[in-house]
Design brief:
80% helix, extended
C-alpha cells in the first residue's frame, strides 16, 4: 500500500507540473498538433509515434 501511495503521489505531482507547463506555454499544444499533423486520422500511427519513436529520444540520451 505504501508503494502505491508513493507512486500515486509522484504521478499527481508530474501531472500538476505538466499542467503548469501548458498553462505557462499554451503554444506547446499547437506544436504537438503540428508534429502529429502528418498522421491525421491514423490513431495507431499516432500512438506508435508518440509512445515508441518519440520515446526513444530520451532513452538514447541516457547512453550518451
Amino acid at each position: 500500500m505504501k508503494q502505491a501511495c508513493i507512486y500515486f503521489a509522484g504521478l499527481m505531482i508530474m501531472k500538476f507540473i505538466v499542467w503548469i507547463i501548458f498553462a505557462l506555454f499554451p503554444w506547446l499544444g499547437r506544436v504537438g498538433d503540428f508534429l502529429l499533423s502528418w498522421t491525421e486520422g491514423n490513431r495507431r500511427l499516432q500512438v506508435f509515434f508518440v509512445m515508441f519513436v518519440r520515446g526513444q529520444y530520451p532513452r538514447s540520451l541516457l547512453w550518451c
